[in-house]
Amino acid sequence: MKKIIAAVTSLVMLCGMTSCSSKDEKDEKNGKKVVGLCMPSVDLERWNTDGEYLKNLFEKAGYEVKLVFSQNDATRQNNDILSILNDGVDLLLIAAVDGNALAKPLDDAMSKGIPVVAYDRLIMNTKAITYYVSFDNFEVGRLQGGYIRDALDLDNAPDSYSIEFVSGDSGDNNASIFFDGAKDVLDQYIKSGKLKVLSGKTTFEETAIKRWETENAENEMKKTLSKYYTDKQLDAVLCANDSTALGVIQAIESGYKGGNQPVITGQDGDIENLKKIIDGEQSMTVFKNVRDEASVAFEVSKRLLNGETPTGRLIDSLAVDVRYDTESYQNGAKYVQSYLLVPAVITKDNLQVMVNTGLYQWDANNKYIENAAK
Ligand code: BGC
């Protein structure tokens, strides 16, 4: 598991969770509106980045921010949100650990009239969600599946190939959508026999990886390799994101004797994975520009905090490629108004695209990519 635990995070968590006078006292003190930012975990590069961007945007605009990370623990996230609500807050922006497990805090938020924006992951079975800001998750899966189709040239190749699926956490609503997107492209080749899944695991439930963790993905892949691929070649692994791809790469390094380098997908553009892409151990990643996602979430939230009702017209004022969608995300209680950004395929041939965003830079040897200096 990638441990990116910034010292600043714990500081932020501390001041977010302990310096807690009531909202009225705060309002009297500084007149600032308070925004609660609830991220799943500090253990994954992306949520640190999201948290940091969002915090900066809101603070620069004069809001007080409470940023919490909940260690990928749904119970803890419930308690963290309840505690923020108790202290007083004007808007909640939540990337859920488990989209089905937030009923209590969201009922509270709704009864207090506090708007809730679902960030990146949809929150299920509640009317409390006012808006959803994310990337086009189905398209992320389609890009991963399409990459495998093209890399193996499935439309023309005379041979059949083997593939395995390594999916995300079943509590994350995105995970099954990524899977469905990938299957939308690959199912026809599985049906025709061009792609064979030797483990027989072809459903989301059979391939889900608890908490998206590298270690869990590695263990699952090791089992699959030793059971089905000791004398067979593994041609591709559809990994749902970069943390699971790392686990698969580790399992392949230690336990695969096939001699070929399987095609391996990913998602997020984590620094460690970009290195694997440059070294030829991972084939691609789906890059989601988190700074853009944070800025759209900020613009939506700002309007809500001003008592406005954002609509599709908002996108005209945004400098980001984003689609307004009211039909794709049904959370079990209602269709949630969504702002969906556009993901992009990154391979070793177009890494410069990421550098061009200004968020990354080449290292001193011009070989690997690192975060841009701040
Ligand atoms: C996010 C991915 C991330 C995964 C694991 C998903 O909901 O969309 O970007 O890799 O969670 O944290």
Tell me about this structure.
This protein is α/β, with parallel strands linked by helices. It folds into 3 domains: 1-30; 32-135 and 289-344, Rossmann fold; 138-267, Rossmann fold (3-Layer(aba) Sandwich), CATH 3.40.50. The protein is built from 13 helices and 15 strands. The chain has helices at 7-18, 23-30, 45-60, 74-87, 103-111, 137-151, 173-192, 204-207, 214-228, 242-255, 271-278, 290-305, 352-356; strands at 34-39, 64-69, 91-94, 116-119, 129-135, 161-166, 195-196, 236-239, 263-264, 285-287, 322-325, 338-341, 344-346, 360-362, 369-371. The strands form 4 sheets. Strands 2-1-3-4-5-12-11 form a 7-stranded mixed beta sheet, with helices on both faces. Strands 7-6-8-9 form a 4-stranded parallel beta sheet, with helices on both faces. Strand 14 and strand 15 form a beta hairpin. The two termini are 25 Å apart. The model is unreliable at 1-28 (pLDDT under 50). The site of beta-D-glucopyranose (BGC) has 12 residues, from loops.
The percent of residues in helical segments reads 40-55%
Ligands in the model, by name, code or SMILES, are:
beta-D-glucopyranose
By CATH, the topology of the largest domain is Rossmann fold
User: Structural class, judged by helices and strands?
Assistant: alpha/beta
CATH class of the largest domain: Alpha Beta
